[in-house]
Amino acid sequence: MSTRAxxxxxxxxxxxxxxxxxxxxxxxxxxxVYSDADAxxxxxxxxxxxxxLGPPPTAESYLRGDKVIEAAKQTGAQFxxxxxxxxxENAEFRRACDAAGLTFVGPGAHxxxxxxxxxxxxxxxxxxxxxxxxxxxxxxxxxxxxxxLAGEIGYPVMLKAAAGxxxxxxxxxxxxxxxxxxxxxxxxxxxxYFKDPxxxxxxxxxxxxxxxxxxxxxxxxxxxxxxxxxxxxQRRNQKIxxxxxAAHLSDATRLAMGQVAVQAAKAVAYEGAGTIEFLVDPQExxxxxxMNTRLQVEHPVTELVTGTDLVVEQLRVAQGLPLSWTQAxxxxxxxxxxxxxxxxxxxxxxxxxxGPLHVYRPPAGPGLRVDDGFCEGDVISNHYDSMIAKLxxxxxxxxxxxxxxxxxxxxxxxxxxxxxxxxxxxxxxxEAFAVGPYDTGVVKTLPPLxxxxxxxxxxxxxxxxxxxxxxxxxxxxxxxxxxxxxAYHARAQGLRGR
Amino acid sequence: MGxxxxxxxxxxxxxxxxxxxxxxxxxxxxEGREIVLQLHRLPDGRTAVRSEGLGQILAxxxxxxxxxxxxxxHQDYRYEVADVRESWLQxxxxxxxxxxxxIKASMPGRVxxxxxxxxxxxxEGGVVAVLEAMKMENDVRAAAGGVVxxxxxTVGQAVETGAVLVELEAAS
Lengths: 498, 172
Prior knowledge:
Oligomer: heterodimer
Largest sheet of chain B: 8 strands, antiparallel, barrel
Largest sheet of chain A: 8 strands, antiparallel
C-alpha cells in the first residue's frame, strides 16, 4: 500500500474534477466514486482509483453515505471531499465519517446543524449580532401567531419552510386576507418537500439583491472573508450568472458585510470554506439569509478576483494547517463573471433537455476559465443536474469582463441538445444587467426568447449544398449508395463528414 | 440547368436553386439573387462558409431524421431540404417517409412486399416496402437512414393514406 495520502471525492461532474485537480497539485492521491450512469464519465478516469456505488438514481448511488465510507475504507483514503450538493451538508454523514476515522473536508457536524435549519440559524445569527430579516425567530405555532407577527412587521411577508432550500418551500403573502390559505399551503409544501412541517415568517424584502460573502476558517480560530459575489441573476430561483465584486455596491457596505460574515463563521466555530448569503435591499440594508456550509458552485469568480485556490485551501485546512492568508493579504483585483451553461430549453420554460453532446468545444483564451465534467460524445443524463459547464471570465474592469464573456459564449460550440447560451447572451447584453442596478427580478424583465431562433445568414444555403451533394454523389456510378454499417454509425455519431 | 430545392425550417419554406457545384465554390440562386458560396473545409472538420456581403459561418453538419442539421456555435439549425423535381415524381405513389422516423403510405394501396425487418439498418433512400396502388408497384423509400424499430403492416394488407408502414429510429 502506498503511503501517499488519498482523497475520496464523493461527487461527480465538474466539481469532482475540480477537486481532483487540486489534489493532484498537492500530491494527494484521488479516489472517484460513480453510479452506473457515470461509468465512462471523465471524473472516473481522471482519478487514480474508482469505486462503483450503485445504479443511476442518486438515492442508490451518490447519496449512499454508507457506500461512500465503505469505498474510502476499501481504497485506504483518509479524506472525503463532498463537493457541493449530495452529502456535502449532511451532518449525519459527517458524523459517520468521524466514527469511521475519516477526515471530512468541511465544517463540523454541529456547525452544519446550526446552519442547516433556517429557524435555528436565524436565532444563532441574531445572537451573534448578525442582522437577520425581521420576522419569527422561533417556528410558527399556529395561524394566529403568524397573523400577529405579520401585522407587526408589515406586509408583504414570506412564509418559509425551516428545512427548505433551493428556492422551494417559499410563499409570498401580499396581504392579511391571503395569509390563512398561504399558511396551510406552506405547511403542506414543507411536509411534501422536506418531511418537516416547521415554517417561519419573514418580512419580504422588495426588489432584493442576492449578495453573498465567501469565508474560510481553520481549526485554530482564524477566519477570513474573501469578499462578495453577486448572484441576483436567477431563473426559477436558481443562479445562472454570478459576478465578483457586486456591481453598484458601496465599498463601505461590502466591507461591513465581510466583517459580519466573519462574525457569523466564528459564532458557529466554523471550519473550511463557507458562504453567507445575504439579501440586500435598494438602500443597501443587508440581512442574513442562510449559510451554505460547503464549497459553492460559483466559487471560481472569487478565486479569479482574489488569486486564491479555495479547494487547495480546504484541503490544507482539513489537514490541520492554519490559513495561508491573513485578512489584510486578501485583495479583490479586477472583475470576474461566471455563466452556468445548462442543458435546457429556455423557450419551453427552462425545461431540462438531457441528451447527447454531439459537439462540445468550449472556448479558451486570455482571462477565461472553464470548469466542466463532460467531453464530446458524452450524454447529459436525466438522473442528475443539467449543468454542462461553468464559463468564467476575468478582466480588469466589469465592462471588459462582460465583453470577454459575450465573445467567449459566441465561440462555445455545442450540438445535440438545447442549451441556455442564447439566454445568457440576452442577459449580458441587456441594459438592466450591463448598466444596472439589477435585482433578483432581472431575468423576468427580459422579453421571452423566440422558440425558433433566427438562423444565421448562409446556414440554409449550406444545408442545400449538403443535401445536394449527398443526393448527387451516390448516383454518379449509377447505383444506389452503398454504405457499410460502420461508416453509417461513424457518420451518425461523430459527425464525420463524407 | 440547376436543381431546385425547397428548404424549410420552423414552418417557413423557401426555394433555392443550385446552379453549379465546383467544389470550393457553389453558385446558388435564392430570392431572385445569385449567390456564390465559398466553402473551405478546415482540419477540425468544420467548414468555413462565406459569401461576399453575407459574412461567414463556421459550420458542422449531420443528418438526423431526414433533416440536415447545421451546427453553428452553440445552436443546431435543422432544415428539411427537398429536391422539388423529385418530390413531384415521388409524390404519386409510394412517397417518402415523413418526419419523426415514420415511413408512411402516401396513397391507399396494398402491401405487396416488405424488404426490411426490425433491427435492419436502412440507408437514406433505401427501399423498405413495395406498395401496389393503381395497378402499379411503387417502392417506398426511407427519406433518411436509420434502424428499423418496427414494421407496422403485413404483406397483403390494405393501407390508407398516411398509414405508418415502418418506424425508423436514429442509429445510436
